Amino acid sequence: MRPIPAIPTSGLDCQPNRTQSNVTALIPRAGNIRSASLTATRSGLLDTFTHSGPGTATVPGPNALGPEGARSLRASLRCATSDAHLATEEAFSGVLEDPARHLQWFLAAQLIACRAMDAARAGDPTPEEGEALAEMIAALDADCRSRGQAPLPDLPASRPLDTLAVGYLTLGSRAGTTLLARRATEAGCPLPRAFELPPAGRAWRDFRARLDRVDPTSHRAQRIVQDARAGFDLHRAAAALAWTMTRDDAHDDFLRQSEG
Q1: Banded model confidence at residue 238, pLDDT cuts 50, 70, 90
Q2: Containing H/E element for 206?
Q3: What angle do CA 180, 125, 167 make, to 5 degrees?
């Protein structure tokens, strides 16, 4: 088995890597993204940078975390996944630019990604996460069915994902729902069930506290970081797959009705 690369625990450089994955490049954008900061600030799709609520994610600059702040798994996760996080937010930015046109694609992509993470999860959900992922899957499935979406394919993960990595992405994504709901309402779109789920709130705070109890120098911490990155990769792969699945006659009819 290939060893998992170690993650830094002090003096972390959080400057995101600007390299874009081929999967992300497959997905058309509704607007130009000129900077990583703009991407994170305006999307809030996966608000796991600062954990301070929807639409407030910011990109740490070089050495933004000092040695004290870097001595936690949460800080290591924030830095070590920043490039994957930004690439994922950019991949989904179209739904904020034009919700009426891209909402069905977004819901399908989220359902594919959530199912993939659920199938790949190694271990039970933590008490803090509870049934959050199952609730998201149920709501997204109902949303896609109500929009006439054909059965969606499975997207297998390349390996099992630590349950803390899955919980990190699940609860973090719930924090961004408020911004998405506001944009959909402004665009005159009926709110999907997935946007009406209660916010993670205290569960998200308690989950972050659990992360802080994991030794950031341990092998498990290194695995959690790598699996969180893999979870972001799954979301971008799901976005590309859903884009091909929603380019059909039924979707074109849906768009004409939304625009008419």
Answers
A1: very high
A2: helix 202-212
A3: 40
